[in-house]
Amino acid sequence: MRDRECNIAVTGGVHRLIIPEFTINFSQARMLAPDGRCKTFDAAADGFSRGEGCGMVVLKRLADAEQDGDRILAVIRGSAVNQDGRSSGLTVPNGVSQQKVIRQALTNSGVEAKDTSYIEAHGTGTSLGDPIEITALGEVFARNNDNPLLVGSVKTNIGHLEATAGIAGLIKVVLSLQYKQLPPHLHYKQPNPYIDWDNVGVNVVDK
């Protein structure tokens, strides 16, 4: 759209649980939470829960939407894409790569890290992945506990929609802006002890 190859786009994702093979594979790899709940950032985080969903948004350049009198729910100022890169395993995120893509997205959007108040995290809910993600956010946004970055993950509400996870998080943030409320991040009772909560400058929105 920025290159004016199109003027309007419908984008999103659909995820259905139709065949058992993926669930069996994830289960055998011990990636799924035994109780079926994503306990992201909690000490009890032990895997994710698979979910189904469909989400779509209509995208248009802001000037065109304003000229056409469209109902505008949110503005996407910028984006960035990278690949997780080398790590010690498939289920182990690369914190340095996470920092790079966040910094690139901020640069592309013209938004200062200090002006960001909330992050919708990936947050699958693993004892290893959660600390890496929170630490990466802490490094980029460099807050203190007097002015923390707020964070949450829609996966605690509806499970991991896999191919639809990104659009689910986007829709959650758009609805949060529309209603001026952040929904509570669920199943957060005891903070993950592998995260340096006292110094990372990040607070989970648990209410």
Give a quick precis of the structure:
This protein is α/β, with parallel strands linked by helices and 207 residues long.
| Helix and strand run | EHEHHEHEHHHE
Tally the helices: what do you get?
A: 7
Mean pLDDT: 94
Radius of gyration, CA atoms, in whole angstroms: 18 Å
N-to-C span: 37 Å
Instruction: Estimate the helix proportion, in percent.
Output: 25-40%
**How many β strands by DSSP?**
5
The secondary-structure class comes to alpha/beta
**Contiguous runs where pLDDT drops below 50 for at least 5 residues:** none
Largest sheet: 3 strands, parallel
What percentage of amino acids are in beta strands? Answer: 5-15%
Globally, the shape reads globular
- Placed side by side, the strands forming the largest sheet appear as 3-4-5
What does this structure look like?
32% of the residues lie in helices and 13% in strands. The protein contains seven helices and five strands, in the order E-H-E-H-H-E-H-E-H-H-H-E. It has helices at residues 21-28, 62-68, 95-109, 129-141, 155-158, 165-179, 197-200, and strands spanning 8-15, 53-60, 118-120, 149-152, 202-204. Strands 3-4-5 form a three-stranded parallel beta sheet. Strands 1-2 form a two-stranded antiparallel sheet. Helix 3 (95-109) runs parallel beside helix 4. The longest helix is centred in the middle third of the chain and has 15 residues, at 95-109. The chain is globular and about 50 Å long. The N and C termini lie far apart (37 Å).
